[in-house]
Amino acid sequence: MYIAKADALRWFEFFAALPEDEALLTRQQEIAYAVFAQIERAVEARRKALVRDIPGLHTLEGRTCFVGDPARFSKGCRSCLTGTGLSAIRKTNKCNVQCKFCYNYGELEHIPPIGDGLWEIGDTKFYEEDIDLLLSIQQKPTGVAYVYLEPFMEIAEYYGVIARFHGAGVHQHMYTNGTLCTRENLRALAEAGLDELRFNLGATNCADRVIENLRLAGEYIPCVGIETPMTPEFYQTFQQKKDAILGAKPAFINCAELHLNPNNIDNYAGESLYMTRLGYVSPIWSRDLTLRFMRQAAEEGWDMLVHDCSNHTKFARDLNLKAKEGGWFGASGYGCEFDRLPYAYFLPTLEDESLPFLREEPLPKGYRFGDVVL
Q: Residue 373: its pLDDT value, please?
């Protein structure tokens, strides 16, 4: 169904006005899905043109794309996309900054603790001394990641667990906003055996002291990189501080396509959004900026790999993880993060004249506005 944009706007205005507890009827769902498909087709057509302009583009088995030296592709990302997946280790339920793109925006003061002295791995609670038991019983993962929330809030707690996984030969990477890094704790992390540290430069809008900490980390940690949701603010500030950031010599930058959930979507109200495979909801500009960023990196010959960590990449990630877990053919954890699709937030997309639908046809009888749609 190639619904016209004018019809799509009229229907979405109607859907947005429905009471929250009123579900769409079957034909209304067909109309809604047709609209999301039309938006996605238009977005992807524009991106194909952007991709064609990127020189020296590489792919990782068709699962993601990047520019730069393939030897610099993060082992953590390789584990995520081709190994046994992203095995998350959770400990710290606090953060010292609040980013508008954060998936926990507005609820940082209410994040449940993991438990005193406990670590969460695979939805199970462990004490540090349980790690050896875990490794002796279950298959050793290709990699683990410390992801929740800002580990440097209590970084000394991490050294022992890192040392245990290091002794088992498991690749380990950690995320940080970089504000609490010191020479002492970076040295201690390296001595414990941390393989990779990723700085979210967007969390501080590329603050000078965080760029310096990025450089400092490179003196101790074997692999140091950047992972940041691609936003207009980050894109612009990176351009202003490009020389300083590249001078800190990160091995890679993962440009994450920003996806939205009920916590952070209000921070992007009024932006043109789209859905990928009826799953992640993202601002259209996020991956568009990444592709322009990659072209710039390739043309200017940056001494850094630039990775397009897009919604497509995350779709491939979840397929890989389920396959490694022995899931059935086609199984994936990828899906929509909204219990009810946020139709009102897509009205700006349907009003955006810079995103025409590629093909439009009149709605068939029974789907037109004013018909009895059951």
A: 67
Q: List Cα–Cα distances, 345 to 10, 39, 163, in angstroms.
A: 14, 13, 46
Q: Phi and psi dihedrals of 11, rounded to 5?
A: -65, -40
Q: Which of 340, 341, 332 is nearest to 312 (CA)?
A: 332
- CB 287 within 8 Å of CB 311: yes
Phi, psi of 335 (to 5 degrees): 180, 180
pLDDT digits (tens, 9 = 90+) for 100-157: 999 999 999 999 999 999 999 999 999 999 999 999 999 999 999 999 899 999 999 9
Q: What's the length of the chain?
A: 374
User: What contacts 199, CB < 8 A, 6 or more positions away?
Assistant: 176, 177, 178, 210, 213, 214, 217, 224, 225, 226, 227, 228, 250
Percent of the chain with pLDDT over 90: 97
C-alpha dihedral (279, 283, 285, 291), degrees to nearest 10: -30
Burial letters 49-75, b for 16+ CB under 10 A, else e: ebeeebeebeebeebbbbbbeeebbbb
pLDDT at 232: 98
Q: What are phi and psi of 192, to 5 degrees?
A: -70, -25
Please name the residues in contact with 304: beta carbons below 8 A apart, sequence gap of 6 or more: 68, 72, 246, 249, 250, 251, 252, 253, 297
**pLDDT, tens digit, for every residue of 271-303?**
999 999 999 999 999 999 999 999 999 999 999
- Give the whole-angstrom CA distance, residue 278 versus residue 290: 21
SS3 of residue 148 by DSSP: coil
Residue 111: exposure state from Cβ atoms within 10 A (0-12, 13-18, ≥19):
middle
- Report how far Cα 256 is from the mean position of its chain's Cα atoms: 5
Q: State the sign of the Cα–Cα–Cα–Cα dihedral 206, 173, 224, 286.
A: negative
Percentage of the chain beyond pLDDT 70 is 99
Phi, psi dihedral angles at 198 (to 5 degrees): -115, 125
Task: Report d(CA 170, CA 175) in Å as an integer.
Answer: 17
Q: Which of 99, 222, 198 is nearest to 146 (CA)?
A: 198
- Comparing CA positions, the residue from 187, 233, 180, 178 lying closest to residue 207 is 178
